[in-house]
Amino acid sequence: MATTHDLPKIKLHWYRRHIPSIPLLATLDRSRSQRILWLLEELKLPYELEIYHRDKQTQLAPPELEKVHPLGKSPVVTVEASGSDGAPPLVLAESGFITEYLVGHSPEGKRLMPEKWRDGMEGKFGGETEAWMRYQYYMHFAEGSFMPTLVLALFIGGLRSPSVPFFIRPITSLVANRIFANFIFPNTRRSLALLETHLSDHQPGGYLCGDHLTAVDILMSFPLIAAKDKMDSFGAFVGGSWKTEFPKLAEYVTRIEAEEGYKKSVEKIKEIEGDFQYNKYDEFFLYQIHTDICSRCASQLRSIAVPRLGAVARYATLSDSPQAPPVHNHETPEVQRTTGVKRPGPAMESKGLQDPALALFNDVVSPTANISTGTEISTQPVMSELELVAKVNHLVQRGMHLHKEYHAFREEIWPHIVEMPQIPKTVYEAATEVLGKVRSQICWVDGNRPVCLEIAQMYDFLGRRNLDTRNDIVLTLCHNLVETQHPSWRRQLLMKDLVGLWQHISQLRRRSETDQGLRFALPTAQDVLDDLAKIPKLDEESTDPATVKRALSSIFLLFPPAHAESILPGLLATLALLSDKKFANRNFQIQAAPLLHLVQLIVLRLKGGLTPERNSGLRTYVLTQLPEITKLLLYQSDHWQGGLDTKVESDVAKAISLSTFHAQLRAAYRSRNTGAILSIWQNLKSNIQSNPRLDEDIRDDPHFLDFWIFVWCGVRRSNMLQETLDLMNRLGIEPTLKTYTAMMHGWKMAKETAKIEALWAQLTESGMKLDVIVWTERVSALIEGGQPEMGVQALVQMVTYWKKAVEQGRQNHAVEPTIAVVNAVLKGLLRQGDANKANEVLGWAGKEGFSPDVRTFNILLRETLRGENSDNAKSLLHSMRQQGIEPDSATFTILLEGVLGRMGSDVAVEEQLEAIDEVFTEFEYSGVKPGLETYGKMLYAVASLSNGSEEAIAAVQEHMRRGGFTITAHMVTILIERALKRNPPDIAKVRALLQEHKLDSIEQGDQTLWERVVSAFAVAGQKEEAMALFDKLTDAGRPVTSLPCLTDLLRMLLEVGDRPTGARVVKLVLENRLKRGEQFNERYWRHHFWHLAKGNGLLQGVDVPNELRDDM
């Protein structure tokens, strides 16, 4: 071994790129060479680099490198020994050989290899240490066993890239899919399992050959790091990811990347190349389509690229026609088990006489070519088409019991159908006739064997993959479970069949699932969220049934929404059973976790909740179970999620974290479900422990914990209040006045007046600067807590403190009382039914100089109309006029609701018109003369009513015309908003409004109006009209600034796949903001518009502010 005094001269021969498009092989060569750089750094050997350039035309190795080594590949190392006296240098090629030689001849090499011999066994067979044997094995494993599989994946992935002509890409994609499924994934998985096993032999933090870094760790670094982000796409790993199935290996890869020598070698490459990326050419490794089309179409189009085979991943396929009977060259394992007939396949071929490469091709691409005459094939003769049809007709005519008829069909007829290379139409129709009879009648045969899944798979084999058929099967099974008394063992079998049914349904139309076993193959959470984003009215408090159905259809993206909705009755019935302890234990919930997770995401967005189908025979049962379904999805998710990968893309991680917990908490608090609240809190704490990023999110939104404080006070959980305060302390979040106001509000709901007063004493003693809001909260809390006298005294106290502060010139040390505090007292006293005390307070307030505002009159007006006293209502309106107080939209809403509310939600149009006249009559009687602002507010109030009719809108406009007023642009905007709230948005109504009011150019009307028109065109998918109006406003120096409008426009452009126009819109918005030099807070830059722009790569190449640059 060389000493430090006679070190050799080492030269690493290196390719350097010279054009932006680096050749794929050059990328691999440089990545391999990086390991040699790392090795040289670890060995502390001096070295120099010889830089070469590939031929610009041929992309082949330059002649100069071929002179160094005939193959002309990198890495190549030349070693010139010290004192060689001009002898030719030693040439080393191949990474493993280079590594062995350099380690074995360097002073520092001992650090990078384990001890070779066991004590007393030097030089003997079998005398080597286990670590040395493993060291030698991995020296050759890296390039000899592991890398060939990855390189094959690299090139086979190219069969599905856009460079393949589109008309043959489906064929090449099929070839690639089969190679991945049958060769690449199994071999990769075996290699990873071996590495996991060897890493498990050592203490945590170890390496392949012990507790310190060796040369084989350096050799293994390239294939593992290069493939780490792509191996999940090779196949279905346990838990959905190779990192989940092989956790010690995942930790090992992270540890390797943190090695100082590794990082130094990366920096060295950056000095040479300018950057460093292992996976610069991901499209060659495993091509996936990334286009800005809608998530439903994207999910279908991804099927002709590479399906990702993870447990919770994007699965897709080309749509299958249910009408045409398919050609079957293979059969799913489930159908094989169902029929008991094993179809001939590649395993039957005697490969000893074939070239190995040809055998692999035949196994993967053309299994029918491998069918032999071996004994594996059923010995019974296959019936002809006519014989099969006659057999089925005879079976149907025998009038057998359905259980026996199905049993005979399965045993006597079905084995012959699966042997047919192509199913004739007559056989298809005969078989579906039998299955159509039994699918809605029977759930098991032979006393204990469930058959619903089996029937569904038969339909699949026949090529009938529609969802309404599956819905019938699911409902049949659910109905049987609910209505029939089964022994527990049979219930368990039927529930297992039900979960299997949904796995089968999730695999429909997914050709990537053809040769896979039963499992869930659902869209990703991100795909579902993207689809939900396109649904109007989704976030409204009261969600209509049509919106609920459309939202749930997002789970089945491979089907058009109208088709997907046909399976929803069965889905709701299944959810009811899974939430019913009588039928489903935790194991079944865990098995159904992928499906439950997507439903959970949707329910969190549906503020109105789920509603069962009216025509479902299980409607009553589902309605009874709705609370339990909600509990299962929202409050007990930690029971069934287990190892499920519920992550979504990082750009929406926060939206699915804090907002999710907030939505769950709101729902739980509204139902006063303390157990659910505690469960959500525990789930939140466990997520904080597993996801440190959540700490940062909470710090960015401290009011999130303020709401928890309100809830704990509201449900009288002092210990949990303290736990939340401890969490705030750990996160460095100081309680603010808003925090204490939230406490008071919670205690007000719980009527804990003693605690409110104790907190108030502490606040006043602390010298904290108070505000009107906390004073108002205290006053109203005392009154609503049954202490009206104390509440009134608190109001008087506030006024007294202020007067003294004014006298002493210390106004900064007190809070100026406003009419808002008086209004809170009035509202509380009237709710308590103490009208006399309310009148006394009102009189006292007048003497103290408080002038009533519109809210004061609204409180009194609402209470008056509640007592159905129209004379007092007219008197109040008269007083408003005398004091010069203009009614606001709340005033008109109170009047309209007071009148219309007494008529019920199904009030007829004629009654609405009478109510409008009554309101105007009361205005006229009280002397209130409506102005343009008044009519605008009135119009808004009518348009906002859930049951407001077009005739009512017209009546308001007619009253306005009689008063000599014409409709304003603001009023037209209100009517446009009303048209947009319809489902679907009424773009024809928008055009009619513009035409009716002669708004045919942007010179007429205001900016708000035209921005809403842009939104209307965008929501309706009218790209040309939306962009034409957008450009007109921009050219006129009035660019669109409304972020909601810009979001509608950008979403529409992305859905139609027009990325260039989307990029232009984003660029114009940024340029306008930067040009005007306006300052915006963080919330502006966190708007969904910027999320869309970043997520779709539309901020690249444009000048962006720091707020956006930090997140890119």
Could you explain the architecture of this structure?
The protein is mainly alpha-helical and 1112 residues long. It has 53 helices and six strands. The strands form two sheets. It has a four-stranded mixed beta sheet. Strands 5-6 form a two-stranded antiparallel ribbon. β5 (444-445) and β6 form a beta hairpin. It is globular. The two termini are 50 Å apart.
The number of distinct β-strands equals 6
- Structural class, judged by helices and strands? mainly alpha
Low-confidence stretches: 17-30, 278-379, 646-656
Q: Please state roughly what percent of the residues sit in beta strands, choosing from under 5%, 5-15%, 15-25%, 25-35%, 35-45% or over 45%.
A: under 5%
The number of helices is: 53
**What is the general shape?**
globular
Overall mean confidence score, pLDDT: 76
Helix content: 55-70%
For the CA atoms, what is the radius of gyration?
37 Å
